[in-house]
Write a structure and sequence with these properties.
mainly alpha, Growth Hormone, Chain: A, 19 helices
Length: 423
């Protein structure tokens, strides 16, 4: 171990099991705010007398808010005391959720969801905070557990939202979410350890370094393009699926629609498998397999228009393909340049939420115009595009080669010091 790493290891006791679980819970609850609305679209549309296409835009505006938060708030997180910032952001999330529950009309609900999306980026403030507190030996494990918590949050948010709405209406979902976030904000403030490093860095420098990394790293640009395409598929499915399951021949209620979210278990199962592919040097094989599975999933989903079995299989295959490719992308990106993991992932996260926004908007529009076959056609087109991008750029340098290039180029001070390393 180099002397500087040895010094860091001895100076940090690391995080215990309790704080790690609390960080994971925080990530799960924060990310869940983006997905509560998906099983509720039919009920909200009926209450406010809007079409499927219009109600589907609620998913889009929530994701637009999150994208804005990623671009503007997350880089600023390194300039403030994150221990306090996280608590305040959860409190603000609770207020935004209460505004959703009390919304008197569709436009007011949309505005409140934008605010909730912006504040939900607290999940991306939690991650570097935990990494900064962790010892070097446990940093990878801590980050992995928090990302796993975010996946669980996505899974449970849809299921819980649908079940709560069926029992007490869609507004109750946001009342419960507000209570949960307010309580969690208090727990985090009282129980999490304080950050030892003094906050600092330049806001403009943090933003500028993200753009610089995108222009300098071809593998990052490749994975950004793949991430946007695969998450466009993800959003197309989960936005339009609510409309399909709420109409003939299924005509399911919100509770049953929410239970479909448990298909996300496939993503949790595939996560360690995808990680092992990367660890053993099979990045290209894994990426190819996941993208081919993504293409195949849309054929199954099309057959599921009137048959439940291929629909369920298609949902599971798509979720496995998306989560497997996503973790493959992140593992590849983390190895590109030492000490820049946070900013590399920021660039990637912006791309995947751009894909989510495009996917949800197209899902609502295409379903309203031409139904489920149009959604499946668009999804297949995005999947084929991802496969074509991979075939065209699959020969880009591997992470280790990029790391060597980054060391030769050197790193600007404002690009290195702003974000704690995840590597």
């Amino acid at each position: 171990m180099p002397p500087e790493r040895a010094s860091e290891a001895t100076s940090k006791p690391g995080l215990g099991t309790g704080p790690i679980l609390l960080f994971s819970l925080a990530a799960a609850v924060a990310v869940g705010n983006l997905y509560y609305v998906q099983p509720l679209l039919n009920e909200i549309g009926r209450e406010f007398a809007v079409s499927d296409g219009t109600s589907g835009l609620l998913v889009t505006v929530t994701q637009i808010g999150y994208l804005a938060g990623l671009a503007l708030i997350v880089p600023a997180g390194d300039m403030f005391d994150r221990h306090r910032l996280i608590s305040w952001m959860f409190g603000a999330c609770a207020l935004a959720a209460l505004c959703c529950a009390a919304a008197p009309g569709f436009v007011a609900l949309a505005v409140a969801l934008v605010a909730l999306g912006v504040l939900a980026v607290v999940a991306q403030v939690v991650l570097p905070y935990a990494a900064a507190l962790a010892s070097p030996e446990q940093r990878g494990e801590v980050v992995g557990r928090i990302l796993g918590g975010a996946l669980v949050g996505i899974l449970l948010a849809r299921a819980a939202s649908g079940l709560v709405a069926e029992a007490g209406g869609w507004r109750l979902v946001y009342v419960c979410a507000a209570a949960m976030m307010a309580a969690l904000g208090l727990f985090l403030h009282r129980l999490l350890p304080a950050e030892t490093a003094a906050p600092g860095g330049s806001y403009r420098g943090n933003l500028r370094s993200v753009f610089r990394l995108v222009t300098e790293e071809p593998v990052l640009r490749q994975r950004i393009a793949l991430g946007a395409c695969i998450y466009a598929c993800f959003s197309l499915l989960w936005t339009a699926l609510t409309f399909l399951l709420g109409s003939a021949p299924y005509e399911y209620g919100e509770g049953t629609i929410g239970v479909f979210g448990f298909a996300g278990l496939a993503g949790i199962v595939i996560a360690p498998i995808s990680g092992r592919f990367v660890d053993r040097g099979h990045v290209r094989l894994a990426t190819t397999l996941f993208l081919c599975a993504l293409v195949a999933s849309w054929a199954l989903l099309l057959a599921g228009r009137s048959s439940l079995v291929p629909l369920v299989i298609g949902v599971v295959v798509l979720d496995m393909a998306v989560q497997g490719a996503h973790i493959n992308n992140q593992a590849t990106i983390y190895g590109l340049r030492s000490g820049a993991g946070g900013r590399l992932i920021t660039g990637y996260q912006v791309s995947i939420f751009t894909g989510l926004i495009v996917g949800s908007a197209l899902a609502a529009l295409s379903y309203e115009l031409a139904g489920w076959p149009a959604v499946c056609g668009l999804g297949a087109a995005f999947a084929v595009l991802a496969l074509a991008i991979w075939a065209r750029t699959g020969g880009a340098p591997r992470g280790s080669e990029q790391l060597a290039e980054g060391s030769e180029r050197g790193q600007d001070e404002d690009a290195v010091s702003a974000v704690p390393p995840f590597d």
